[in-house]
């Protein structure tokens, strides 16, 4: 079993997700108290994929997050750098073009996607700026990015309760449902260390994206960010 550290060495992060692949979707549903499915629906609405569009779904894991885009008639490419996740995804969704790739060195040509999206994955990338720059590179001019990521609850009393849940309740719950509960200790730590909503918007702007904006979900536990390529 393995867990990554907060310096987010790529081989450690990949190995950690390899370990949790089989029960990853189930564990997320349990730990989020069922909110994960609602968050996926919010992402699908924000991406607003149209028939014939090309959508890159980064950190796609087993491909579950890619299904709404395919159902909308878009050509979706689920991409992840955990081979364990991709193998599990291939068993479940053999028709999806699951692709191995590192967010900081994407294996795609310039300007080929109408939209790029990443849910709960940007936080695990060692070089956030490099990843945002790569997403910009593979998106066509006028195309869009949608990022769904854990963030900072906006109401202070709830923020305190939420932080306690992350560090005290999450690991024991993960022990009962996950094949690698230690991985969820890292995930809790990485959530606490992640920038708040304005902080991520600033990173998008710095990487070259325009008109960054966000919408809070579940009181700011999660934030949905959207921006456009000039």
From TrEMBL:
Task: Cite the EC number.
Answer: 2.1.1.163
Q: Catalytic activity, per the record?
A: a 2-demethylmenaquinol + S-adenosyl-L-methionine = a menaquinol + S-adenosyl-L-homocysteine + H(+)
An example GO BP is:
methylation
- Tell me if S-adenosyl-L-methionine is a UniProt keyword of this record: yes
Q: Which UniProt keywords apply?
A: Menaquinone biosynthesis, Methyltransferase, S-adenosyl-L-methionine, Transferase
Please name the top-level EC class of this enzyme.
transferase
Pathway as given in its UniProt record: Quinol/quinone metabolism; menaquinone biosynthesis; menaquinol from 1,4-dihydroxy-2-naphthoate: step 2/2
- Name the InterPro entries on file: SAM-dependent_MTases_sf, UbiE/COQ5_MeTrFase, UbiE/COQ5_MeTrFase_CS
List of residues binding S-adenosyl-L-methionine: 62, 80, 102-103, 119
Cited Pfam families: Ubie_methyltran (PF01209)
A Gene Ontology molecular-function term?
demethylmenaquinone methyltransferase activity
What does this chain do? Methyltransferase required for the conversion of demethylmenaquinol (DMKH2) to menaquinol (MKH2).
Family to which the UniProt record says this protein belongs: Belongs to the class I-like SAM-binding methyltransferase superfamily. MenG/UbiE family.
Q: What is this protein called?
A: Demethylmenaquinone methyltransferase
